[in-house]
Design goal:
Distance between the termini: 38 Å
Keywords: Biological rhythms, Nucleus
Structural class: mainly alpha
Shape: rod-shaped
Family: Belongs to the EARLY FLOWERING 4 family.
Number of helices: 3
InterPro entries: EARLY_FLOWERING_4, EARLY_FLOWERING_4_dom
Number of strands: 2
Largest sheet: 2 strands, antiparallel
Organism: Salix purpurea (Purple osier willow)
Protein name: PROTEIN ELF4-LIKE 1
Order of helices and strands: EEHHH
């Protein structure tokens, strides 16, 4: 006979399986870590993109003004925009790496293995 029960978490709209080995708790911790990673990364990206939007508006205003000093300022503004695009790429790259690690960790937990975090703490 199976001792598993299915319950819905009030905070999350998902089902999880509870059992005697505490796997549901590990899955929930993994889910919380994944959502936190995604949320933080997307907030950082949105912040950089919002800043770029403001910079682009400033570049356009400087260009329309045709004032030589403003056109010179556009060079540094465009460099900053390009730097910000690199930041966004880096954030997405880090996000991809972090999510991949979370997925590997989750699979390890689901397959009954101990997590990398647990094995590291057991070695010390």
């Amino acid at each position: 006979m199976n001792n598993n029960t299915v319950t819905a978490s009030p905070k999350q709209d998902k089902r999880r399986i509870k059992n005697d080995r505490g796997e549901a708790k590990k899955e929930e911790e993994c889910d919380a870590e994944a959502w936190n990673t995604l949320s933080m990364s997307f907030k950082r990206v949105q912040s950089v993109l919002d800043h770029n939007s403001d910079l682009i508006k400033q570049v356009n205003a400087n260009h329309k003004s045709k004032i030589p000093d403003n056109l010179v300022k556009n060079v540094s503004l465009i460099r900053e925009i390009n730097g910000n695009i690199s930041k966004v790429m880096s954030i997405y790259s880090d996000l991809s790496f972090n999510v991949s690690n979370i997925v590997v960790e989750r699979r390890s937990v689901k397959n009954g293995g101990e997590s990398n975090l647990e094995s590291a703490s057991n070695e010390s």
